[in-house]
Amino acid sequence: MILSVSRRTDIPAYYSDWFFNRIKEGFVLVRNPMNFRQISRVNIAPNIVDGIVFWTKNPAPMLTRLNELHDYMYYFQFSVTPYGKDIEQNLPQKNPDILSTFKEVSEIVGNDRIIWRYDPILINTKYSAAYHLSAFEKIAKALHKHTKKVTISFIDTDYKGLKSNADKLNLTTLTSQMQTKLAHALASIAHKYNLTIDTCAEEIDLQEHGIGKARCINGRLFSKLLSHNLSIPKDKNQRTQCGCISSIDIGMYNTCMNGCLYCYANYNKKTVAGNFAKHNPLSPLLFGEITPDDKITNRIVKAYRTI
Q: How many domains does the chain have?
């Protein structure tokens, strides 16, 4: 089993104490996003978890405790974007804070276990294509010794959470030709710094520009890191273009406090604040408590490691 921590919220930034408590107790309770009263009890013991993928914009709160994960294999999907607090409202400064944290993670786990995410790419009057090219090169120059790969994607406006912020973002529509041109230029910069570059769940094919298709939850990478073969099926619950293998996500929507206007996982700012206020790091749930109306079911999980 692969544990996703988490596409739905930034657990390393805001809920790391809760996560380590779950690791210590060996299980976690996860509400079904489609049916709030259905709860899965997930065994997360080391003999069951093949790997953990951390999705984050700021894992600083958990760095002093990574030694507690000595029985687990894991890697980071670490987003470093060029946006300011007009878009990413609650993040620390990129330089030096976020860049320094990225380098510290790399020093702890190695540059093959931290992937730089430059996504989503959005264009408006402030964040132009030229702005992105300049910012991307500055970040690549700062981080290229601390990672081996960068993943890019373009903003997807179809998400419910994003639609409510569309006016604030004042987006410029990007045609596929415009995306290809910008991606080609970004690839040239990435290759200049010896970085592999791929795209996350994009329909356009950019392989002729040296850009692959990402497997953000990557069975091949885990097989290499574990020195074990992993035969895990593709995740059927993701978008068609997604290359990720199947995983169990232990996060919840409407709980991330980063305040990013492009976020697809937060639908309502007041709901986010309310849910965050209900967080108890000692609870098996990410927020709130178990009620008499809840139905808890043991999730069937297994390890996929083979020699």
A: 1
